[in-house]
Amino acid sequence: MSSPHRAGAAAPAAPAVPVSRHRDELVVFENVSKFYGETLGVNRVTLAIPPGITGLVGPNGAGKSTLMGLMTGLLRPSAGSVTVLGISPAHPEQLFRRVGFCTQQDAFPPGATGRSFLVSFLSLAGRGTAWAKERAAEMLDQVGLREAADRRAAGYSKGMRQRLRLGLALAADPQVLILDEPLNGLDPLARAEVIALLQEQARSGRHVILSSHILHEVDLLSDQVVLLNEGYVVAEGNIQAVRGEMHRHPLQVLIRCDAPQRLATRLMGLDGVVEVKLHPDKGGFFVRTEDADSFFYALNGIVLESGARIDAVAPADDDVQSVYQYLIQNGGRGAA
To answer: What is the domain extent for residue 317?
Structure first.
C-alpha cells in the first residue's frame, strides 16, 4: 500500500504502479490529477486495481465521483494517465465494450417501461430485436424487476430505478462494472439480493468498483478499499482495518417505515444495539449498533415477521463522518 498523507501536506513522489499483474488485467491510475478550474477534484492518485470488489470510500466531495468519471471517460485528467484493462478512456467505443457504468442519475423517455428501456438500449448492439428482448428479460429477472417490467419506468420507486440502472450496466456482460452508490435507496431484502449479485460478478473474475460514503456497505462487499479525503488517497488495501475501526465506533442507522414505534421496540433487545430513538417527524427512528453485521442480518428477519413496510434504511451521515475523521486523523493506520 502506498504511504498515506493528508490533504494539504506536500505530496510525495508517486510510487510506480505495481506490475505483479499485467496491465491488461488492471484499472490503472498513474499520478492522476483532476482540477475544475482552481478547484481540486483528485490529486496525484496512483492506483492499480485488480479484479474483485473495490470500494471507493469517502465523505461527499472526497473525489469518488471524479475517479469514476476519469475511469469512464466522462472526465479527462488534468495530469497523468488512466487505463482500464489496457484501454484509454479516450477511446469510448473500445472502452464500453468492456465497461458497464451505473450512475446515480437517470432519465427515461416518456412512456418507456423497464422492459422497453432495456430493449431499446440493447438494440444498439446490432444483434437483432429477438436477442435484445431475450437479454432484457434476463436482466430484469437478475435485478428483481420481472413483475414490474411492463410498468412505466418513470413511476418506479427510487430502489426500483436503482435496480433498473444496475440491469442496464450489466446488460452488455462487462468485464469492469463501475457503480456509483449502488445500494442507495434499496430496502433490506433488495440490498441483500444486489450484494449477492455483485459478489457473483466478482467471483467470475470481473472488476466491481463501487463508491460509497457508507463504511458498512464497503465492509459487506469489498475485497479492498480506497479511502479518499479532499481529493487525496488517504489509505488503500485490506478491508479488515476498516472493519476494526467500525467496531470501535457504533454505527447509527436511520430506518423509515410505516410502524416505527412497533419496529423500534422489537429492535431494542438485539445484541449490540446501544440506543433506539424516534425521529422527530415520527416517520422513522434511529438505531445505534456496535455490531452492524449482526444488526442488518437480524433486521431482515424482524421485518419479515412483523410485516412492516420499510421505506428506507441508511446510516446517519454525522456518525459516518466521525469514522472517516478517525481514519483520516490516524493516517489510515492499520490498512494493509
So the answer is: 246-329
